[in-house]
Structures are given as C-alpha cells and as structure tokens.
Design a protein that fits this description.
Elements (H helix, E strand, L loop, with lengths): L9 E4 L5 H12 L3 E6 L2 H11 L4 E4 L5 H15 L4 E4 L13 H5 L6 H29 L2 E6 L27 H20 L4 E8 L8 H8 L14 H8 L10 E4 L7
Parallel strand pairs: 1-2, 1-4, 2-3, 4-5, 5-6, 6-7
Length: 267
C-alpha cells in the first residue's frame, strides 16, 4: 500500500470548491499529501482547507490569468518548498441566465460565441497556464504528476436524447463547448507527456462520467440506462483513480486517458 502513499507530497487542485474538486482534495489529504485547494472562491477554499486540517492551504486563484497562477505558485513554494502533484480540475459548464431560453441558446445553430470563448478560457487556457507554471517547477526538479480532468464528452458526442424531459420536451441541448474543450484537454495531455517525459513528469487524463447531484429522477434514469453499471457516479467514485494517478502506483503510466464512467463509452 506504500505505492499509493502521498506522504510528504504537495498537491495543487484547481476548481477545489466544486462537487468533485472537494472529493479530490479529501482523497489527496487522506493519502497523506499537503493539499493546496485553489479556486476563484476565496472564502470557499479557505473553509475547505480548514476542514481538511491545519497542514493544508486554501488559495484564491484564477486559472485564466497567468499572474494569478504564478502568485499562487510562489505561495505554495514559500510554505511547502515544492509542488509534486497538479490536478487540473477547474472547468466551466453551460449556465443560462434565463432557463426559458436554455433550449434556444444551447442549440448549435444559436450558441453564443462568447459562451464558447468562456469555456475555452477556463477549460483549455486554464489547464495550459497551470501546467505551464506548476509543471515547469516539476520539470526543474525532475519529478511530478499532472492529472488533467476531462470527460466522457471529450471522447464521444453527447446523446441529446437524455436531455428530453418526462413530458417529451427537449429542455436544452448539451452544447459543443464542453466536447470541444474536453477533447482538447485529452490531446494536450499527450503533448505534455511527450514533452516532459524525459524530465520525470508524468501527465495523464482522468475522464469521469456524470455524477448524481440533484438531477431529476427522469434524467437519472435516462443517463443510468446508458451505463453498463446502471447508475450515475457518486461523488466519491473518482477518488481511487485520482490517487492511483497521483502516486507511484502508476509510476510507468503517462500520456494515458483513464476512463471511469460506469461503462458509458464501452459500447
């Protein structure tokens, strides 16, 4: 079990106050890492770090701004002297201010360019900048693990039928932005793995499926029917995979995409 230990390691998690981000932080802390929880929500990451324990740190950071990421790195190095693990978890998904307009605006024919740009800024530029800033330090010391969180929608197109409600109405469409950006994350992983392989930095993707989080019973049933395990994920279902990728248990693994989706993409 020592292979899975992260004792003495420092792990930076972006998007830490989200549902899955919190579980990533908890798992890393349980494995012994010093966890640096980062998010634009300063109050949220401060509270999260306090919950995890006094050895952990919460930092406000905007992944789309290099100055903000660089400032966070300096604080991490000041406290822990090194960074060993980076979990690029921060991402944005479509939110429409007027629910009544969701169907119209989410349709590809009408999808706003500014919405696509926002997704690209967070989901692609954010991963790029955090990898550049934190990963460079890993490469300089000759070791590290970067975990880029993608999605099943980075590999397959969305099945729009699961978004039809119990009345037979298409409530909204899963837009192009999420598949575009998450597909980019998967191939960016391969680039970094090849680029930094000789520097001892491993780079892998974790591609999760949908998580149960207050959706309607109808949607849950629709989604679950497409998985081989017959259910949506629990928020804790990705913790084991994350620790595997972060630790020496995956020491000979880089450039890979670890899919944890209940069998969604298997058929």
């Amino acid at each position: 079990m020592e292979l899975f230990s992260l004792k003495g390691k420092t792990a930076v998690v972006t998007g830490a106050t989200g549902l899955i981000g919190r579980k990533h932080c908890e798992a890393l802390a349980m494995a012994g890492a010093n966890v640096v929880a980062t998010d634009v929500n300063e109050q949220g990451v401060t509270a999260l770090a306090a919950q995890l324990g006094e050895q952990h740190l919460g930092l406000a950071m905007d992944v789309t701004k290099k100055d903000s990421v660089s400032a966070a790195l300096e604080q991490v190095l000041s406290r822990y002297r090194s960074v060993d693990i980076l979990v690029n978890n921060a991402a944005i998904n479509d939110m429409f201010e007027k629910p009544a307009m969701a169907k119209e605006l989410s349709a590809f024919e009408n999808y706003p360019l500014e919405a696509l740009q926002l997704s690209m800024d967070v989901n692609i530029t954010g991963v790029f900048l955090c990898s550049q800033v934190f990963g460079t330090k890993m490469a300089e010391k000759g070791s590290g693990s970067i975990i880029n969180v993608a999605s099943t929608y980075g590999m397959v197109g969305p099945d729009q039928s699961i978004y039809i409600d119990e009345n037979g109405e298409q409530g909204f469409y899963k837009s192009a932005a999420y598949p575009i950006t998450k597909g980019a994350v998967i191939n960016f992983t391969r680039f970094l793995a090849a680029y930094w392989g000789n520097k001892g930095v491993r780079v892998n993707t974790l591609s999760p499926g949908g998580v149960e989080n207050g959706q309607t019973a109808h949607f849950n049933k629709q989604y679950s029917a497409k998985t081989l395990l017959g259910r949506m994920a629990n928020a804790t279902d990705y913790q084991g995979a994350l620790i595997f990728l972060a630790s020496d248990a995956s020491a000979y693994m880089t450039g890979a995409n670890l899919v944890v989706d209940g069998g969604w993409t298997a058929i």
